[in-house]
Amino acid sequence: MMSDVAKDRTAHSVKKKGSVSPISCHEFRRRELHGRIKDCLSTVSYMDEPSLRDDASRRTVQMENTYQLGPTKHFPVFIVNHILKDVLTSYLQEEQYEPELCRQMTKTISEVIKAQVKDLMIPRYKLIVIVHIGQLNSQSILIGSRCLWNPKSDTFSSYVFRNSSLFALANVYAVYFE
To answer: pTM of the prediction?
Structure first.
């Protein structure tokens, strides 16, 4: 049988290092007092040194002010339009509209577009890529978007693709990060 001091040390060290099994310290003592459990081993489900975790969270990179309020290189809308056209055409040229397929294609196409635009390495621009795919069936659709931005530095690029059974709209919004 463990002494009370040893139990307190064990409970304190386990509490410092992470969460314990479903029996908490209070339940352990309560059950021991009622005579149900005399020896109990608890397992630690998460172990981490608190000092290491605290040091990692305190390490922040301090950057000096650049005082740069405008972009040195503007967003190349013309090049991004070509990227949108190439990606939408290559992925959707021969496809027929199927809801499940198109749901996955919107995710895939938006990731491909984002990766290709990031490869242009335009500094200090945040990118938002939105792709819509729908069935082409003699209907109309209105898609609107609003954003608060600076018209001198922020811009967008858009392309609409159509084949015999579907349409696709891809937008890339480029917002300058001051």
So the answer is: 0.62
